[in-house]
Specification:
Blueprint lengths: L9 H12 L3 H14 L4 E7 L5 E6 L6 H6 L14 H4 L9 H7 L2 E7 L6 E7 L2 E8 L4 E7 L6 H6 L3 H18 L4 E6 L2 E6 L4 H9 L7 E7 L3 E8 L11 E5 L2 E3 L2 H10 L12 E7 L4 E2 L10 E2 L2 H18 L18 H4 L4 H7 L3 H5 L11 H17 L15 H10 L5 E4 L3 E6 L2 E6 H19 L4 E11 L2 H16 L3 E4 L4 E8 L7 H14 L5 H16 L9 H12 L14 E5 H9 L2
Parallel strand pairs: 1-7, 11-13
Antiparallel strand pairs: 1-2, 2-6, 3-4, 3-6, 4-5, 7-8, 9-10, 10-13, 11-12, 14-15, 16-17, 17-18, 18-22, 19-21, 20-21
Adenosine-5'-diphosphate (ADP) binds next to helix 2 and helix 5.
Length: 612
């Protein structure tokens, strides 16, 4: 038998490799646009014919290439962007594999024209299926123009599998949109079959969003701006009412590179909890800036998926940043203190940071709340007082323009506060057994009793959870519960969490559990009920991340413990409830986002009375 192994020719190797990088016209579009950006272009044109099947051309005014570089750029592993393996981990430019042009040239007819500013003349090169057909000097403007004609002309199977023109062009527009979105300072134009489809002037993220996605978005954008030691988050999210039933306007960029991440998407959706319907997608264009050594963008051939050194940390920060943005614009409460305290144990949070980043980020909201001393994820008590005052102030000073919280004048706080605690004791009305109405300086305030209790319980449980030492009261007669095998497993998993909030529950074999102790405030006789409730909660959220499980547990417990509102019929308990509510870090909303109190301002009452 003869030997059978042969080396593939460069040509075939390139064609095979090309399949990884260039799957369809839009992949070539992406690579060419990224190269133009890396070349420092400020003006980029994308010219498409027949959804890219006939022509994909990118014209830029970037740095251009020398004659030799113009020839070299089509070689596999030819790149000016990395020199050694360490560069891979610190790279900030878009390309870094030196594969794109080689791949494109392997499967198309390519014409490149390029000229550097310092050169008298430029270079023109024609390559067809890796073969250089022509190289000559040429005249032309500074910058580079690359035309990719008849993509997959020599790979009929691939060409055959391209989708309809409308589908392929849609992919191209998607790529164009992502690249243009991430580079609003660069002017872009897109032509399809000689018709101009996009004409984007140099601008900022906001103008770019509106230019790309439509004017209707302008009024729905809520800015996000957070700097922390670990990552910076900026961009825009949509108001809850702008959420849609279909996906489409969701953009994540990590270090200015578009990525897809169901995990991070979940973090954003999580921040909207209670504000949008379960099945709908919030609008967002978010830029996450991290130290490049902390993400690996290289795991996916087309670089759309990334691996983070610590994705749980990213999740927590992103979610908190979105919540904060919603809160700042009075759209939703800021619930960041419900962050999983485990986050602070994560190795990446413990990593030392430079003094420079520390001082730079010390002003930031996230740093001040859950990144206390750069690590602690809990709001300090002293801070909570300030925060409820802020919220109270919003309630009093709400203006139609929805000013950010931070911009509102804090001057009225003191006397307002005094008045609230001293004079108002007699001014509380119990309405329908479920609401407390009281007068405050600026009008009337109505408080939902059960929700207020829920909030108070939630925060009490949370702080016990954070301290890790909740007082337990021994049950006089231990209660045993027999569960189904499935429920047994759920409860078993939750035992450590339950112990942390004061439950002493022992597994007794055969899915039987004995409740020996409960949190000290739990009324007797509630043991079985609360266990069932907890299991019910866990069941409905079985596939949620563990980070959320704590929250589910605490929220569920708080709900259960707030069932009994009879005590509130006594006057002294009413004032106590209001005081306790406003000592909470977040008195405005329950843990699951329901409004606890509302204000009717004096002007509104006047208006109603005078009928203007
Ligand atoms: P990579 O971008 O990963 O380096 P490419 O195959 O996309 O690999 O490009 C190879 C090289 O060709 C780049 O590193 C760059 O030096 C050069 N190049 C490609 N496109 C342009 C352009 N539009 N302007 C200037 N130089 C370019
Ligand atoms: Mg490239």
């Amino acid at each position: 038998m003869p030997d059978v192994i042969q080396l593939l020719s460069d040509h075939i190797a390139n064609q095979i490799a090309a399949g990884e990088v260039i799957q369809r016209p839009s992949s070539a579009v992406k690579e060419l646009l990224e190269n133009a950006i890396d070349a420092g272009a400020t003006d980029i044109q994308l010219i498409i014919k027949d959804a890219g099947k006939e022509l994909i051309q990118v014209v830029d005014n970037g740095c251009g290439m020398s004659t030799t570089d113009a020839r070299m750029c089509f070689e596999r592993h030819a790149t000016s962007k990395i020199k050694n393996i360490n560069d891979l981990f610190s790279i900030r430019t878009m390309g870094f594999r030196g594969e794109a042009l080689a791949s494109i040239a392997a499967v198309a007819q390519v014409e490149l024209k390029s000229k550097r500013e310092e050169d008298e003349v430029g270079t023109k090169i024609v390559v067809e299926g890796t073969e250089v057909k022509l190289q000559e000097a040429c005249a032309g403007p500074n910058g580079t123009s690359i035309s990719v004609k008849n993509l997959f002309f020599n790979v009929p199977a691939r060409r055959h599998f391209l989708k309809s023109n409308s589908t392929e062009f849609r992919h191209i527009v998607d790529e164009f949109t992502r690249v243009a979105m991430a580079n609003p300072q660069i002017a872009f134009r897109l032509f399809h079959n000689d018709k101009e489809q996009f004409h984007l002037g140099s601008g900022n993220t906001k103008t770019r969003i509106v230019d790309l996605l439509g004017k209707t978005h302008a009024k729905n954008l809520v800015p996000v701006e957070e700097e922390t030691e670990f990552l910076n988050i900026s961009g825009f999210i949509g108001k809850p009412e702008a959420a849609t039933r279909t996906r489409g306007n969701q953009f994540f960029f990590i270090n200015n590179r578009y990525i897809k991440s169901p995990y991070l998407h979940h973090a954003v959706v999580n921040a909207y909890e209670g504000l949008i319907e379960k099945e709908s997608f919030p609008f967002y264009v978010l830029f996450l800036e991290v130290d490049p050594s902390r993400v690996d963008v290289n795991v996916h051939p087309t670089k759309q998926e990334v691996k983070f050194e610590d994705d749980r940390m990213m999740y927590a920060y992103l979610s908190a940043a979105v919540k904060h943005a919603l809160a700042r614009y009075n759209i939703a409460p800021s619930l960041d203190f419900s962050l999983n305290p485990e986050i602070q144990q994560l190795p990446s949070v413990q990593l030392p940071t430079t003094e420079e980043t520390k001082t730079k980020t010390a002003q930031g909201y996230l740093s001040n709340t859950f990144a206390n001393k750069g690590q602690a994820h809990r709001i300090e008590k002293s801070d909570s007082l300030k925060r409820w005052k802020d919220l109270y102030e919003i309630a009093n000073a709400q203006t139609p323009e929805q000013k950010p919280v931070e911009e509102q004048a804090p001057s009225l706080h003191e006397d307002h506060n005094k008045q609230h605690s001293n004079d108002n004791a007699q001014n509380i009305l119990l309405v329908q057994g479920r609401m407390l109405v009281t007068t405050v300086k600026s009008g009337l305030m109505a408080i939902h009793i059960r929700r207020a209790q829920e909030r108070i319980w939630y925060e009490r449980l949370l702080s016990q959870w954070n301290d890790g030492e909740a007082p337990t009261q021994k049950v006089l007669f231990p209660v045993s519960c027999e569960l189904s095998p499935q429920d047994g497993i759920l409860l078993n998993d939750a035992l450590p969490d339950l112990a942390r909030i004061g439950f002493d529950i022992a597994p007794f074999g055969n899915n039987t559990f004995v409740v020996q102790g409960t949190p000290s405030d739990l009324p007797h006789g509630e043991e079985q009920n609360i266990i069932e409730e907890v299991i019910e909660q866990l069941k409905h959220n079985a596939d949620d991340a563990t980070a959320k499980r704590t929250d589910i547990l605490l929220t569920g417990m708080a709900k259960r413990l707030s069932r009994n509102t009879t005590a509130i019929h006594q006057k002294e308990n009413q004032q106590g409830l209001i005081d306790e509510l406003f000592a909470c870090t977040q008195p405005e909303y329950t843990a699951d986002g329901k409004r606890i109190f509302t204000m009717i301002r004096k002007e509104e009452l006047d208006k109603k009375l005078d009928g203007v």
